[in-house]
Amino acid sequence: MDRYITINNNKYTFKEGDTILAVAERNNIHIPVLCYLKDIAETGACRICLVEVEGVPQPVASCSAFAADGMVVYTDTEEVKKHRRKALEFILLKHPLKCGICENAEDCILRDLARQMGISEVSDVQEEEHHPLQDWNMLLYDRDSCVLCMRCVNICRDVAGCDAIDVVARGNNAHIEPATEPLNCDFCGMCVDSCPVGAIKDKPFMDSLKVWELEYINTVCSFCPVGCHINYGVHHNKIHRTRISCGSHICSKGRYGFKFVESDKRIKTPLIKKGDIFTKADYHDAMDKVYHGLTDNGVENSLIIAGGWLSNEELCSWKSLADKTGMMFITEAEVYFGRFAHLFKEKFGHYESVGTLQEVENSDVIFVIGADFARENVGVKWSVIKAIRNNNAKVITIGLQRYDYDERTFLSLIADYADFAGEFEKIKSSDKNIYAALRKQISSNKKISIIAGNEYFCGEKQPSSILSFADYIGKDKLRAFILTYDKLNYAGSLYTGGNTLDEVIKAEPKAVFALACNPSTGKTEELMHIIEKAKFYGTPDMFLTGTVNKADVVLPVKSVLETEGTFIGIDGRLLKINQVVESPANCKSNLETAHILGEYFRKKIDTDIKSVFQKIAEKIGYKAEDCESAEPVYRVKEKIFNKTDFTYKDIEHTERIIYVNPRHHEGVLTKIINTCGADDFPIFPEIEKHISPGFIRSHNIEDNIAKGVKLIPR
What we know:
By secondary structure, this protein is of the alpha/beta class.
């Protein structure tokens, strides 16, 4: 039976648990808000969203007052306006409208509200003690501007899942402080985006420009395959800040990692090594050397390595060039995932994750297997936190360490000696209470998800064990199976195909041309050894870092922010990257480089992104017109669930080093290029020398790191 609430003389249906504000928003009825943020805990602190309810003597906060059957509400009476105005004037006693000297003036909810209510200034403003800006690592906090709306605290707790800040003290002394000194969190900047007055600021943007001087360019973040929408604030071809877009949030890499494009260490002209020294060269001379390097020892002995940053168009074009010329071709994703990716495809029919992140959010039980979200895909953690908040989802982690969000989990297991497979076997059959409790969760719930990450792929010696665990959960219950990975286009890389690592090692290539790939210790270490053994090594790159220093030829390349293309997201969504800034003059995109090298081989490689996508769309699981779609487009997936044959074998308990992703950093883009620009401003906090667990469950720190493993940031 429908229930009705009357708002401004019109009847509307509502669901149990709806607030008055939620009903009003759903029906396009404007109620001004300040402290309110959709889908998180309401505080009712600002009193700006007051409405009049028949039978109630005083106006009520619509954000926290629940709708009731037969309730009659008025949102715009003179009495309501008077109370809202008084509430706003009270706030403005602490935050005077000094908009002329505020860099946030045109991006301020408080100023917008003052304009709506006709308030230009407030009398009787008392001068209070001035507080200097507080340095919160990548953030700055202006206590004098803060209106204590609690939005930052609420979003940090309920969306980011960090609990990194809170209100301390009372009365006039109340203010926001970090939970730890200095602030050490995900640095996702949700607190910055949620602040209605700019009291929390991005430190890199301070003293840069006024917000109204920026042109915002909307695209998809290029730092991982989650596919968060992002706005880049650009002025005179330089990125100054980032903001959220289309309801997405962005992690520390997306928010602050763009500084690499303007680094004075960037390669802007071709380099040819003479002896041990790189010398600047003409582009034609450099490409001529690349061509001869790939052909002098027989083109069949040459290898193209395609990194996980390449677009679908670049991947397919380079694979086409390899096929047409007879060169070998391998992707970084093929090496990282190894045989597991193919086992996954045999089981489910595709390489990208099963289900979507939305299905993770709707799950009742989520198994997180070796995935440290802070080091891989922070956006996946937000979906997990949302499932906890909205569904009271039971999250079970099995990892090599305790994670930052561990106190929110139903149960946390440590996989000693990286024996994840052993933990799966215990869940299936052990008599211990904790494993029996997990079996009960599996049997009593219908929507279960699995998330597998870096620690699992790098540590587990029996990788098909997790696929067998999916069988144990069952086809009817498994809603999502997410594979976290730190490179943008791992799924597109795997669909491109090519040689296996065993085939390449056996062939012993004499020449290597590596694109968007700078392998180091860890899962891609074999690629580094292949490069070191080759007689010739060429690469388009932005910096002389890591393996690039060993190259014979280095070509200046456009960054992903300086070109466009399509990518396959973590759950099969088509991601379209738009160009944000122009590149330096001599830089070419990887697609343009394929075209130029193709001319040397007399093979045609198309450089038009749209044209290339239309040619390859069906091959990678889309329609030709999907590139122009304004709505999210997902790959057409096979929906199969083949049984995995697996028998657990006891492993030898020997100590091992397992390389994991460095927190906040991403390869040469943010880890090695740690400073840039005239002010030598650090992009992120110092790179860790070792791993410290995020949450201490006991007084003994050894209880929070798996036995027999040493975790080292690569």
